[in-house]
Amino acid sequence: MEINGKDELKSPLLQPSEGTLNVDRITKSIMFKVGGIHCASCATSIESALEKLHGVESVMVSPLQGQAIVRYMPEHITAKKIKETVEDAGFEVNDFPEKEIVVCRLRIKGMACTNCSESAERALSMVDGVKKAVVGLALEEAKVNYDPNITDTDHIIKAIVDAGFGADLISSGSDVTKVHFDLDGISSAEDFSVIQCVLESQEGVQHVEMNLEDHKVSVSYDPDIVGPRSLIRCIQEAGKEQKSYHARLYNPPRQRETEKKHEIQMYRNQFWWSCIFTGPVLIFSMVLPMLPPCGNWLDYKVHNMLTIGMLLRWIFSSPVQFIIGRRFYIGSYHALRRRSANMDVLVALGTNAAYLYSVYVLIKASTSATFKGSEFFETSSMLISFILLGKYLEVVAKGRTSDALAKLTDLAPDTAHLLNYGVDGNIISEEEISTQLIQRDDILKIVPGAKVPADGIIVDGQSHVNESMITGEARPVAKRPGDKVIGGTMNENGCLLVKATHVGSETALSQIVQIVEAAQLARAPVQKLADRISKIFVPAVVIAAFATWLGWFIPGKAGLYPKSWIPEAMDEFELALQFGISVLVVACPCALGLATPTAVMVATGKGASQGVLIKGGDALEKAHKVKTVVFDKTGTLTAGKPTVVSAKLFSKFSMEEFCNVVIAIEANSEHPIAKAVVEHAKKFRQKYGSHSEQTSEVKDFEVHPGAGVGGKVGDKTILVGNRRLMWASNVPVFSEVDAYISENEELARTCILVSINGRLAGALAVTDPVKPEAARVISFLQSMNISCIMVTGDNYATATAIAKEVGIQEVFAETDPSGKADRIKELQMKGTTVAMVGDGINDSPALVAADVGLAIGAGTDVAIEAADIVLIKSNLEDVITAIDLSRKTISRIRLNYVWALGYNILGMPIAAGILFPFTGIRLPPWLAGACMAASSISVVCSSLMLQFYKKPLHPKDD
Asked: Does residue 599 contact residue 856 with C-beta atoms inside 8 Å?
């Protein structure tokens, strides 16, 4: 990759996929639509007007998209003033966000099923100022968009707690970059005050949090202004003559990992404690009574019909029911208070029915000398034990669903070699520092075999870098000065000096993680089925359980079935109660809620590790339905690095004059072909004796989408573009030019025509080689029953030649950006699901219009932002990977629903006793609990099978 300038060094390698706002305490960014932009000059006028305003840091206006992004300092200027300035310049402002919106992420604890996540989402949505809230069950996180003028994170967390869940703040929109320090030399509260004041006075520091007890400080800062080493130096310089302060980097334990370990340990401990008390209950109720005379002492009567066995079973089961099983009571209370029902309600109903009836039997036996009845203390105890075992195995399995994401996070190295330069530009020292202390513009030394610590530009050295951990590309990529490198990749054989351009949360690795986390949080449309079922599921199960109890109790009392059906030591009521409890427990909705999010988590993580960034369950679900893939040509099917292979004059203009006007006009265009033309024209100009690097000033520059550009150079009117532009401008194209164009188009070359003052002056033939994998990819897609179409702004002859080479039958050529989107809509109107693959700004409307937009990772930021799926390593084979992975994932989700509903569909009739009259087979409550736990574990393990996904098409070695 080439360095295009300072702005490119500061632009993120991957744009964040949050909303339209990115707000922090010092600077804010606002994005809005601008109407009335006709050319690049209009965009320049808006930028000039806004840049004059005090407090505006940067302005970017896209003439094609009609969109503006303004970064400003709110203490100096308001968003309203920015809007008024654009309107005063004669343009219309649309989609202007009138209110500030901040995004925060929360960790939510205590969610057991889809009903829980819906309840948490509903509680968040009811908070004043919250605009949007999304809760992910499998990720156990929430993303909340809120107005900071109305509410804050404290009120949002309180709403979650009031709904019966635990909540911790992960991050808020005000967090830019945060670093943690351990402080030494602190002896009093005054020392803390001194350090806090000094840090807060530093430019770029957003927020300072002091931990007086542990002598720690956390600082949020803007990496554009200040860095962590500067903050350490600031703390050390704060010491007075008698005081000496020192700060060293402190890495707090990862909250998610810590909480996950704590949750696993909690369920494991609860299960073992439950076993300690349930074991004796099981022995006293099922083992010893079957081993006379060993168990005869259990039948010794303490008082009336109350036996030692009954008393011991009651004593050992009570702690299981009320202490170890306390979590089910708490969960049920909060669920019923928010007018919903979840797994906790079913478990609490089932275990309490067994336990309370057993207590009734115990009291009746102690007060009557003739009463005979059986208690079910072992039922409630064993039920709780099996449910806790199931939850323990479930959280262990769920922890593995984010393994791919954890591996990505761990790619960044812990240390880096920093080079310090003197004023004369020579290296004066080299030191090993933590990667968290890297600041923008640092020069880092990467030795062979070391990982690249941050995103940057190579300033010296050559090597091969293995980027497979980020892009999935197995072959090392050759790197030389000027090329970009990505943090976390491996330097193979040469020593490199890299200038850090993106640090902390700005690195490509961090942004990949953020995109995948956002995707895992998003709810896939297929999950709506589970949501609808879960809303009526628990009430329906309770009704079914009650109906089961009545269905066995009333006929039993009426003598409608033989007394021989009733097991020994039971009566009609007890038999009916056991059937009812089994129905309650076996039909748990947990597995139903986990079916979709766990599969999406594994699939998005696996995709990211293979170079395919999927921005949510919606994109994942739509991609499996794709029947037509529309390809852009330049930069997508072709390499995107066009070169001029020939040039010809058709007038009396000199080659030097021809080159001068071409350079002047095309220098204003960002199109890849324009860059190739400028580079070639400069070489030609030098060849014909001119060594001037000066570029003539262009006036009235205008972009003709899909056709070319034009403007005035001095007193000359210049047009540079295709034949369509010449026809539209009434520039005659005579037979000699037509022959030149036809000759080159047969060779799959694009002809760029240049007119001066309405007369055709010359032409250049440009070729862009087809990507080596293009033909294989098209062939493979067709074998998947997916039709392939090419849509390009290039001329028909060149487009047809390229299409023939790669195997595409249907071609739409000479199409402008809006025309590409129209073609997509035409295909959609025929009832087909369309995917668009593109890389440029002119592909953005089509990427948005398509059901699934796939952006080539090396393309523009606008294209990446507009797409649903980003192919990081720009390899067309990943188009197949994205579609195939989505198909495998949706198939896995459907299988998960089979596992989730299969236990219920098969288990509920058996639990209700449908087989009992014919075979004597019944499902005891404790076994029903084991089936319920097995359904959740089966679903999670089924999703984990996606970890073994392999690409259907592997790259061939050169």
From this structure: no
